Amino acid sequence: QALEKYCQNFTELARKGKLDPVIGRNEEIRRLMQILARRTKNNPVLIGEPGTGKTAIVEGLANRIVAGDVPESLKNKELLSLDLGALVAGTKYRGEFEERFKAILNELKENADRYILFIDELHSIVGAGDSSEGSLDAANMFKPALARGEIRTIGATTLKEYQKYIEKDAALERRFQPIYVNEPSVEDTIAILRGIKE
Q: Which CATH architecture has domain 2-197?
């Protein structure tokens, strides 16, 4: 229920052919699969400036899951993208955001072997010190679930936010494995634009 309400199912979109093919990101997608298939430190976090195509890499993974072009341990996984906008929308009273987030975590725990949750702007969930108390509580719910391996996530953030919020937090740093995402090369950019044009 909560997952349907507050997440976008990338694998479902891939099944319907609604995700664009990803160009020139095979290396990052391969790395993503490699980390997700590990036993420990198996939550990848894509680190790059806005616009470097972090979300596209995750969509590329969704396309591969649907095509069956992934390691055995990732077959039949559902890749969900957390919609922070929907999660925050219309929260009126104190604690409502936490309740929603808790419901998401509970559903993820119940289906741990089925779902992988993509959290773009990961720092907005874990980097709670600077913002509202709401996200602080969300971080405190999120960390133990992650630490116990009850949920599987892929994060995305900028280098600055990663260093500020994740690297400095030993409990988080132990769980996340960074993947650095650079700007696409000129050749890839041209190929991407051609792909869009076609």
A: 3-Layer(aba) Sandwich (3.40)
Q: What is the pLDDT along the chain (198 residues), one digit of tens a residue?
A: 899 999 999 999 999 999 988 888 999 999 999 999 998 889 999 999 998 899 999 999 999 999 999 999 999 999 999 998 898 888 888 788 889 999 999 999 999 999 999 999 998 888 654 455 555 678 888 888 988 889 999 999 999 999 998 888 888 888 899 999 987 777 777 877 777 665
Residue 159's alpha-carbon distances to 46, 50, 63, 134, 182, in angstroms, are 9, 10, 26, 24, 11
User: Alpha-carbon distance 3 to 118, whole Å?
Assistant: 12
Which amino acid is located at 160 in the chain?
K
